[in-house]
Specification:
The protein is mainly α. The protein folds into 2 domains: 11-121, Cysteine proteinases (Cathepsin B, Chain A), CATH 3.90.70.10; 127-222, no CATH class. It is built from 7 helices and 7 strands. Strands 4-3-6 form a 3-stranded antiparallel β-sheet. Strands 1-2 form a two-stranded parallel sheet. It has a two-stranded parallel ribbon with strand order 5-7. The longest helix is centred in the first third of the chain and has 18 residues, at 61-78. It is globular and about 60 Å long.
């Protein structure tokens, strides 16, 4: 355990601490969905550190303490988290979520995020989406859904997000404080792409609802949008 808070790893420090054998979060008993999610959310960014410290109204302080002291701080300090620490969290999620399979079965990452963010910590939803002009919906992460497209062999995240929003007729109601995106590359049975290139920056200009944008013909402010 590492009870003292550690900042997220950046630049050369991230490479030094996280690269090599016996680094990252140790997998055990179908924990990969949780290991990958926790590593992505906390190893190199502080945008969700409120999950570790904020006394939210319905926050379970025991789960928050396990997440902070047994997983995030050791990951940031030594670059390694034991499988037993993640199992401790999984056991608590099983008790709180009334689902016995959290300790042994493969889960969808979205199910894990919804449980820990909404039911256990009581965090407000991170995303507000609107589909086809209908009532806006709130969620904690966005899962990419799209049909197989032959021209995308090794896509990047920017391409996948744009095409997924287009195919689902979705818009972001506002700029999110944190945009968690689940790639179409998970589970044992089927992976749509053999690999996906991470986009180090994400341009969401065209994904925002009622955002002023440039006309591709005259260069002025656009009044119509063609999908």
């Amino acid at each position: 355990e590492a009870p003292e808070s550690s900042p997220p790893l950046r630049n050369e420090a991230a490479v030094r601490v996280l690269r090599g054998r016996m680094k990252g979060i140790q997998g055990h008993c179908n924990s990969c969905y949780m290991d990958a999610a926790l590593f992505s959310l906390f190893s190199c960014t502080s945008v969700l550190d409120s999950m570790l410290f904020m006394p939210f109204p319905q926050c379970d302080r025991n789960v928050q303490g396990i997440l902070r002291d047994e997983i995030v701080n050791p990951l940031r300090r030594t670059g390694f988290v034991r499988a037993s620490s993640v199992m401790h969290l999984r056991e608590q999620l099983t008790d709180k979520g009334q689902c016995s399979s959290f300790t042994n079965a493969e889960k969808d990452p979205e199910e894990f995020l919804n449980l820990i963010m909404q039911q256990i910590l009581g965090i407000e939803p991170l995303l507000k989406l609107q589909s086809g002009g209908r009532k806006e919906q709130e969620c904690y992460c966005y899962q990419i859904f799209m049909d197989k497209q032959e021209d995308l062999v090794v896509p990047d995240v920017q391409q996948l997000v744009e095409r997924s929003f287009l195919s689902s007729d979705l818009k972001l109601v506002e700029i999110p404080s944190c945009f968690i995106i689940q790639m179409p590359r998970f589970g044992k049975e089927y992976k749509m792409f053999s690999k996906i290139i991470p986009s180090l920056e994400l341009d969401i200009t065209d994904l925002l609802l009622d955002s002023p944008r440039e006309c591709c013909l005259c260069g002025g402010v656009a009044t119509l949008e063609c999908s």
